[in-house]
Amino acid sequence: MQTDLIIGVDGGGTKTVAWIAPLEDSENTTILGRGQAGPGNPRAVGFETAQANIAAAIEAAFTHARLPRATATAACFGLAGAGREIEQQRIELWAQKAGIAHLVRVCGDAEPILAAASPASRGIALICGTGSLAWGRNIAGEVARSGGWGYLLGDEGSGYAIALSGLNAAVRAADGRGQTTDLLERFMQALGAKAPQALVEQVYAPEMTRDRLADLCQIVFDIAPVDPVARVIIETAAEHLTDMVTALCHRLELRGGEYLLALAGSVILNQPLLRSQLNERLESVNLAPGSVWLVEDPVRGAVALARSIAKAHS
Question: What percent of the chain has pLDDT over 70?
Answer without folding.
Answer: 99
